[in-house]
Specification:
Enolase-like, domain 1, TIM Barrel, 2 domains, 12 helices, about 40% helix
Amino acid sequence: MMIDGLKFHYYSYLLADSLKNSQNTYFQRDGIYILLQFKQSTGIGEAAPLPGFNLESLADCNRALSKLSQWLYTTPFDGDYSQWCTLIRDFAPAEPSVRFGLETAYLDLAAQQGKTTIARHLNSDALSHVSIYGLHLEGHPPSEGMKSVKVKIGSDNLFADIERLEHLTGIYGPDVTFRLDVNGAWDLSLAIRACREMRRFNIEYIEQPLPPDQLEDCTELRFHSDIPIALDEAVRNLPAINRIIMAGAADIFVLKPTCIGGFSEIAEMMAVIRKAGKRVVISSTLETGLGRLACLQLAAASRISEPYGLAAELLLVNDPVAIPLVSNGSISIPAFPGSGISPAERTLLIQVFSQQ
């Protein structure tokens, strides 16, 4: 497929409500929209490194995209998907959010030309809908029908976290499981104690209980707890996944495309994780609706049965791309060709670039 132009445009949207974890408080979301061109066709993606999670900055993304844009201006790309992935790894080796955005834009363009969705373009047997888990926000409970709810914990006061779980159990009832996200706030002794105190709750897993560099302690924690351990911040690339598997440090791998790379890289990672008999969860990182729909397409193409972390409840003020409504704990893959954004939303995003 031919690519003869690349444009990109910064965005900044306020969160409708601030989001706090054990490490950071977020009030807005900044990122870059990416547009690939071939004649009158356009593919759109998003690079949105999240402070506190991604290692690259927006300035790093800008430099990588600028270099690729200049190269495409003099040397139009004419190759297949595999060649495109190789090319963008050369231009953005340390910017996974850029690689994810550029792969999204390429696949968006290719799927439109085939009059299908990204998920069906990658896999003709892709899922038609994807289960999702809710994100608990005070005053904004997840949509009805959720079977699993993510809760941010990891305060300095373990008893405060336990009281919160008791309160939430009363709200959601015994049939809803909790995915507890600690964001690496505990040490080993506190994690062992917490797992013992919390095992009476309906907990599906505890995510990143220890700092990302403490794999040996994660392995030790698994010997002391029946609660499955998921790793998130520790999962950066395929070598990291292999180290985690070899160490026996996790039961579940949480893959955040914005933090670890594009569709092709994640496919390699999932193959290794599944071969090891471990579970895979795809999760977004508060991107706009465009980025979250791309993650949805990835989850559908990969036929992941684990509920996907879409953060459907968390709205960005003036986000130009809407997320489909949740129905009985799942979301249907939009039928619009490409990434799933509507024609009106696509027109609006393209107009942003034309105003530059």
